[in-house]
Amino acid sequence: MTDVDRAPIEDWATDFDHTHPDYAARAPEVWDELRDRCPVAHSDRQGGMWLPTRHADVAAIAHDTRRYSSEGVIVSPFKPVGMAPQGYAPPITSDPPFHAEARRLLLPAFSPKEISKLEPAARASCRELLDTALADGADVVDAARQYAQHIPVRVIAEMLGLPREDGDRFRVWIHRIIEAPGARRDIAYEDTLFYYLGQMVEDHRSHPRDDLIGFLIGAEMDGKPLATEHIVGTIGLLLIAGIDTTWSAIGASLWHLAQRPDDRRRLVEDPAVLPFAVEEMLRFYAPVTMARIVADDEVELGGQTLGHRDWVLLPFPSANRDPEAFDRADEFVIDRERNRHVAFGLGIHRCLGSNLARLELTVAIDEWMRRIPDFELADPDAVLWSTGQVRGPRQLPIRLLHPEAL
Ligand code: HEM
Questions:
Q1: Pocket test residue of 211, 279, 351 for ligand 1, highest count of atoms within 8 A of CB
Q2: Which of 74, 90, 146, 213, by CA, is between 20 and 30 Å from 272?
């Protein structure tokens, strides 16, 4: 399943690897163990990196853009250099002062009002996927492959103005960039996301369209049009951030519900609990861990000394399970009222697509539960979790209970 051979992990406190299949399968246990035993862990893998697991440390780093740069946000053996403050995928890879303007440009497209317009299409898409999955009377459905993975692709492709049929290609690029960074070195430039997006931008320039790519082509910063690298970097970011994350959150939510008849029943009998359930899914199964590069000469953190240009992982999912920050942190509480989770990050880089992510997650769970209210894991051992900084099920066979009633 992995792209490269992996030595087994001997001790998570000194030898962790977030791209290892063992981490993918049991990351929450690893965070719990490290939070107690070694709250800022170090590993030599991936060229060397730090892993803080406490909420307080994760929050301190996210808010400190002076000492921790976003020039690199995906840990890989190739550490970006000399690209700050713009970075290769603005605004996520941008530092102040460039960041604010690059982010501001995008805000109108992701406002609650604009995003709410997408709801009917998102619902129709979920229903169509369920129709297809259930068409031949199947009683086992792969909720990751036949459902979750397609929902965000359709929405973001439409917003950006990219062909929806290219969904499979997007997922190949996402796998290479997020799940197995640096694993392949033999890829032709014509087969990269950045080449593809460059072609798409050229096509939009010659055939102007009213979509997000068209908008970015016409946008200006400091009175000048955006550089092509800026446009391509931003579109690449939206495509990756928009697909992998929500796909993971939808899959993890269905994985949870497949094992919890009490929570399924509650959603069916009390639909008003859905918004609370969505927030708790985001807290408990937060999919996104980001990274930073240390910008100061030395930084003290949790008794450790981090050096200049060291990689630091920022595991928001671990912060969300810290008992210092949440009551009953290790329990999934479907109607949790006070839920200040950090699944969408903290500080200036807080997720720009959170309205869209919430819409997609809500609609995906709601439509699934209306159609398939009762279900279980068909084979718990067949569930496969992604490796890397975005965590969610990539294979999720689910058996429908009472299919005759569907
Ligand atoms: C459940 C789904 C999602 C989760 C958990 C999530 C999580 C995050 C997190 C943790 C960050 C902070 C990054 C950092 O601190 O370096 C972030 C940033 C971002 N996200 Fe999301 N995201 C999700 C969905 C989306 C979607 C659907 C989009 C848009 C298509 C999106 C677009 C962005 C962008 C553009 C940024 C960068 C913002 C900035 O740097 O100012 N995300 N996201």
A1: 351
A2: 146
